[in-house]
Structure formats: structure tokens, C-alpha cells
Structure prediction request, 126 residues.
Amino acid sequence: MKYQKTQKPLDERDKLRQFRELDDAFAKALRELEDPNNNLNIPTGPPVRSLATLEDDERREREAEVPSREEQQAEAFRLRLEALLSTAPMSREEVLSVIHTLVDLGQWPLEQPPGVAKAPLSVNRL
Prediction:
């Protein structure tokens, strides 16, 4: 069995002395923090933000990562148009002329994505 030194219990005077030392050290630290001429380099963390602000930031990041439905439709249309231009017996200028004609006749509204036409285009209507 090892010899263990038992600590004698602290008497009330020692407890009060330790408490006063801690209280004095704490008060001194507070005074140093409140001093406007303090040159202490106290590290601070990022600013505290509310939960609602954090959720808004996360929502914006998710929206920025995922393209909107309109952007997806525009990209799909661009790919289909490029495929059409590469295989069509028409030149690029002729295809653009057809598109401009459809827009001018009101058959293809500019504010509506191309893949979501209300009524299908027919040759008879042109």
C-alpha cells in the first residue's frame, strides 16, 4: 500500500484569504477590461448572430447553389437550340429569323420560357 499524504482541512481564515485573493484578481481583471486606454490584446470571436439571421444565410446559400427553375429552363432551351442549329439544314441566322418572327407574331411571348407554351405552335397558325 502506498503512503498517501492526507490534506489537512482548511480552516475558515484560509478559506476567506483564498476567496479575497480570487475576488481581488477578478476585480482587477474587470477594471483592466473597462479601461479605455487598455492595450491588452483580447481575442474576440465572431459577432453573435441570431438564429433567424443564420437561417436566412443558409437559405441564401442553398438558393445560390441551386439554379432557379427559370435558369434551368433557359439552359435546357439553349442546349436544344444549339443541337437544332448543329443539325438543322438552316443557318444560324435563319433560325434566329424564325424565332424573331414567332416573337413578333405573338406566338412566342418573351416573358414565357420556350418550353412552357400555352398552346402548341402549328404550321397552320403561321
